[in-house]
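Blinded run. Sample ID left blank on purpose so nobody reads anything into the name before looking at the predicted structure. Input follows.
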Amino acid sequence: MTSSTSSKGSLACVGIGMMLGAHLSPRARGYLESADVVFAAVSDPLVEHWLATMNPQLISLQPLYAEGKARQQTYRDMAEAMLAEVRAGRRVVGAFYGHPGVFAQVPHAAIAQARAEGFAAVMEPGISAEDCLYADLGFDPGRVGCAHFEASQVLFYERVLDTSAWLVLWQIGLAGERTYKQFHSTPEQRQRLVDRLLRDYPPEHPVTIYEAATLPIGQPRIETLPLHALAHATLHMHSTLAVPPARPLQPAK
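Blinded prediction complete.
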């Protein structure tokens, strides 16, 4: 049933997890099923179809992407599309891959703006690629520690890398891309990331490209190669790099 425009709108940004149908929490499902409108920030028509089985009032946010259009503008447009429905008095849900607060600007921005305007807004967590990474690669981040960075941050800013801990670099397929208009970086741009890592790691140090499985019948991508070969590997926007420690922990003096 559709809320009247005179009622108070609300926003819930929910995580649907990484694997289709397997990671959705009961609370997230409840938000999806009871919403007046659901905005889907997913790139797979199969996932959109699955969401529509829970709520047919589904609007895809994917058409807001365009080649040559700045991603920051796309993100602003996505947040505004959801907020327009909230202001109209509707119960709005944004459905996002993984965890809606992890490498997702739109939920944070939309929730902050909705709250600033006096609307109820919540974030419902989901199973993220990080959670899947620990399970699939089989390491505990609490054993020797684990640092996470967006890959380009390591290039554009002074970051201190602790080679006695695990290093996880997100969005390595975009490493070095400054325009925010492209959906991939070039091998030359990624070589800059490799050169930066070579300041702390040996060329033959094993690194693993990871992509979480998104279908129950699928398998995660777990491809290990020497660091020096990374620039010319096949990488995607959702590729993550896991770098194991290069030296043991040193006792404090």
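Unblinding after everyone has recorded impressions. Helices lie at 26-34, 45-54, 71-87, 105-116, 129-137, 141-144, 151-156, 187-197.
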